[in-house]
Amino acid sequence: MADSLSSLVDGFLDQLRYRLNRSENTTVNYAVDLAQFVEFLQLEGVEGPEGINRDRVRGFLRSLMGYGFAPTSAARKLSSVRGFTAYLTREGLVEQDPAAGVRGPKLPANLPRALAYPDVVRLLEEGPGGRHAQRDRLMLELLYGSGLRVSEAAGLDWEDLEPEERWLRVLGKGQKGRAVPFGRGVKELLQDWRPDPVTRQGPVFPGERGAPRITPRTIHRLVTQSARRVGLAGVTPHTLRHSFATHLLEGGASLRVVQELLGHESLLTTQRYLDITSDQMKRSYEQAHPRAGG
């Protein structure tokens, strides 16, 4: 019955909170989006997970657009649904992920493409596969976690890394170097990737078939293949760089800090990312300003 769908959502939210340690804000966003999804399913007469299929996921997306939701908001809600249906698939409650392959709304061409954070998590954790899964997971984490350009990731040497301090040095456009931090997860992945400190020289990512280092084309391919495994289309290494910048701004980082981390020459280049976070800024204003509702 309807209660079973709601209880499944509750189980998914508990997993986000207690197993995956997602923030309360992220969990609340999921809860709001999935409550709307469950309401839509109820109106469609769906009583349990077996009634969720690709057509109904698409129908939910169409209904959001019909109610006037901005494409960026509808895309975020679809991302929440993807996370939920992936959970149902892992739990064996549906045979195939009904949201896999469902495309989100077309975003304005003048805005950079950014993934919703739940989609990033799925890409990083479930996307890598095959014999290069360990390498691909590390590459994805660096592209998103440090906002690296493809050429910067390909050119990384072990001598560029300071694992204990969690910093790396890259040579960006115009041969300008910069230091970029990376997360604790990357530090652990680096340890697993090359555990013997004696061998930590030369390229972090060696090439295939005797090539000295990985090529940008190989990086592009591993990103797109990992994205397809979790039902995401149109994802490139540059998508992860955009997502890095967008999520930093949404989290409160200053524009100047993001400019330095990206290695942008001009602040105007970084300001493009402010457009894609306008929904977030409006919500923050309405929640925080005493005269917002006046």
TrEMBL record:
<comment type="function">
    <text>Site-specific tyrosine recombinase, which acts by catalyzing the cutting and rejoining of the recombining DNA molecules. The XerC-XerD complex is essential to convert dimers of the bacterial chromosome into monomers to permit their segregation at cell division. It also contributes to the segregational stability of plasmids.</text>
</comment>
<feature type="domain" description="Tyr recombinase">
    <location>
        <begin position="110"/>
        <end position="286"/>
    </location>
</feature>
<dbReference type="GO" id="GO:0005737">
    <property type="term" value="C:cytoplasm"/>
</dbReference>
<feature type="active site">
    <location>
        <position position="149"/>
    </location>
</feature>
<comment type="subunit">
    <text>Forms a cyclic heterotetrameric complex composed of two molecules of XerC and two molecules of XerD.</text>
</comment>
<keyword id="KW-0159">Chromosome partition</keyword>
<feature type="domain" description="Core-binding (CB)">
    <location>
        <begin position="3"/>
        <end position="89"/>
    </location>
</feature>
<dbReference type="GO" id="GO:0006313">
    <property type="term" value="P:DNA transposition"/>
</dbReference>
<feature type="active site" description="O-(3'-phospho-DNA)-tyrosine intermediate">
    <location>
        <position position="273"/>
    </location>
</feature>
<keyword id="KW-0132">Cell division</keyword>
<keyword id="KW-0963">Cytoplasm</keyword>
<dbReference type="InterPro" id="IPR013762">
    <property type="entry name" value="Integrase-like_cat_sf"/>
</dbReference>
<dbReference type="Pfam" id="PF02899">
    <property type="entry name" value="Phage_int_SAM_1"/>
</dbReference>
<dbReference type="GO" id="GO:0051301">
    <property type="term" value="P:cell division"/>
</dbReference>
<dbReference type="InterPro" id="IPR023009">
    <property type="entry name" value="Tyrosine_recombinase_XerC/XerD"/>
</dbReference>
<protein>
    <recommendedName>
        <fullName>Tyrosine recombinase XerC</fullName>
    </recommendedName>
</protein>
<feature type="active site">
    <location>
        <position position="238"/>
    </location>
</feature>
<feature type="active site">
    <location>
        <position position="241"/>
    </location>
</feature>
<dbReference type="GO" id="GO:0003677">
    <property type="term" value="F:DNA binding"/>
</dbReference>
<dbReference type="Pfam" id="PF00589">
    <property type="entry name" value="Phage_integrase"/>
</dbReference>
<keyword id="KW-0233">DNA recombination</keyword>
<dbReference type="InterPro" id="IPR004107">
    <property type="entry name" value="Integrase_SAM-like_N"/>
</dbReference>
<feature type="active site">
    <location>
        <position position="173"/>
    </location>
</feature>
<dbReference type="InterPro" id="IPR011010">
    <property type="entry name" value="DNA_brk_join_enz"/>
</dbReference>
<keyword id="KW-0238">DNA-binding</keyword>
<keyword id="KW-0229">DNA integration</keyword>
<dbReference type="InterPro" id="IPR010998">
    <property type="entry name" value="Integrase_recombinase_N"/>
</dbReference>
<dbReference type="InterPro" id="IPR044068">
    <property type="entry name" value="CB"/>
</dbReference>
<comment type="similarity">
    <text>Belongs to the 'phage' integrase family. XerC subfamily.</text>
</comment>
<dbReference type="InterPro" id="IPR002104">
    <property type="entry name" value="Integrase_catalytic"/>
</dbReference>
<feature type="active site">
    <location>
        <position position="264"/>
    </location>
</feature>
<dbReference type="GO" id="GO:0009037">
    <property type="term" value="F:tyrosine-based site-specific recombinase activity"/>
</dbReference>
<dbReference type="InterPro" id="IPR050090">
    <property type="entry name" value="Tyrosine_recombinase_XerCD"/>
</dbReference>
<keyword id="KW-0131">Cell cycle</keyword>
<dbReference type="GO" id="GO:0007059">
    <property type="term" value="P:chromosome segregation"/>
</dbReference>
